[in-house]
Amino acid sequence: MNKHNILFIGLDTHKEFVEIAYIEDQRGAQAVHFGRVSSAKASITRLARQFQSKYPEATLHFVYEAGPCGYWIYRLLTSLGHCCYVIAPSLIPKKPGEKIKTDKRDALKLARLLKSEDLTAIYVPEPEDEAIRDLSRARETAMKDLKDAKYQLKALQLRNNINYRGTANWSLKHLRWLTELILPHPSQQIVLQEYLQTISERIARLKRLDNELEHHVKKWR
Asked: In the chain, which end has fewer C-beta atoms inside a 10 angstrom radius, N or C?
């Protein structure tokens, strides 16, 4: 192989393992199934070294689909000096009638499509950007959890035909009214107290995340 050749390597990534296939930059070359390795960083590093040892004059081009495992494989491989592309699953070309999917087939397909230049890579955020995104996601989750807790408390009131006559729900006046409620049975009173405690904790959690997000965004580019 001359030093200008490229080796295209498809990675089908999962939590515990990665399925690998590759294809040489030669006319008529066929994709080859390499096998499966652990998804540990040491295994991915060792995999890259194996390919570099077998194809010392080639440039390694890795590709994998974006997913819940994030971008750490991209950052690891690029830190080792290799090219890596992350592809949105929705942008991967599909042939009519193509229904059967396996890890091996997915890895082979990625390698072939990368060689034929039929893939479009997505933007990979910087680690700092992703960190802010995680903080924002945590805040969104906190908002949803608070909304769910309030809904559960409202459902309890509805089942017992208890209605608040004020105008501003979840105001200090409303919360004080809730703490003074007496339900028909002691077991229901326990449920009410648990819901109120949960709402109080989730309000505090949301406030903490609001403050943290506001603080970190000021220093974010």
From this structure: C
